[in-house]
Amino acid sequence: MNDTIRLLRAHRSIRKYKNDPVTDGHLQQIALAAQAAPTSSNIQAYSVVAVRDTNRKQVLAGLAGNQKQIEESPLFLVWLADLNKIQTAVRLHEDSKLHQNTELFLLATIDATLAAQNAVIAAESLGYGTVYIGGIRNNPGAVSELLELPPLVYPVFGLCVGVPDQEPDIRPRLPIGAFLHEEMYQNGRVAGAIEEYDATTRTYYATRKGGGKGGETETSWSREMVRRFDGGRLRGHMRSFLQDRGFDLN
Predict the structure, then answer these.
(1) Which residue range or ranges hold the Nitroreductase domain (predicted)?
(2) Please, where are the H alpha helices in the chain?
């Protein structure tokens, strides 16, 4: 492995941070690395709001499901899919409404995601720890109001950044055979790979340190998937919220 691959494979979600700030210089470097990510047709349909204010982080933590790591991180980045800037660019030349469809929505969301992952890699290379916060979509309307987001912009997820104050175990991933398919999707081997992974995750959950409670001997990855997705629609409010924000999903 080279240093880049070693860094990528050492990734862990960090939820406890020291009081050290993220310097302005490092924030600029993280942001510039994010902007260097691939973007479809150079549309750059993403933005990010950097939040350091203690009160604002406290409100965001509550809106995201009382996730204390948002309050405790010195820097919280809210990543945005941003079609407002595309609409603004169009109106510099003609007074017309941006033509939208689901594909354009996907492009903006993917752009934001690619940029955010570049930011994670940059932050970790500078010695910081990170964790994504999907809970920012629990109350996307209130988040949008708090951050004064214009129409055609929505919060995709948040990202805590700070100097780690914990050393959790690296969470094992599915066997590569359940992920890497050559030429065609090999569906026949997926169930076996999941069963193999269940055995691995049972051990992980029972013995892990620094990122969760150990002793969870009856927990496995497939059981976790049942728990997460067998209870109905996940964040079913998102479609109506996006339509209210001006996104056309047809």
Answers:
(1) 9-162
(2) 3-9, 24-35, 54-63, 68-72, 84-91, 102-125, 140-146, 190-207, 221-229, 238-244
Among the listed residues 31, 87, 244, 63, the one whose alpha carbon sits nearest the alpha carbon of residue 147: 63
The burial class, CB within 10 Å (0-12 / 13-18 / 19+), for 22 is buried
Tell me which of 3.30.1330.50, 3.40.109.10, 3.30.160.100, 3.40.720.10 is the CATH number of domain 3-168: 3.40.109.10
Which residues, in sequence order, are CB contacts of 203 under 8 Å at separation 6+? none
The whole-angstrom separation of Cα 221 and Cα 194 is: 8
Cα dist from 205 to 114, 175, 187, whole Å: 29, 17, 27
Residue 240: Cβ-neighbour burial (10 angstroms; 0-12, 13-18, 19+): exposed
Residues contacting residue 122 through CB under 8 Å, at least 6 positions apart: 29, 30, 33, 34
Q: Tell me the per-residue pLDDT of 78-125, one tens digit each, with 9 for 90 and over.
A: 999 999 999 999 999 999 999 999 999 999 999 999 999 999 999 999
What is the reported pTM? 0.94
Tell me which amino acid residue 70 is. I
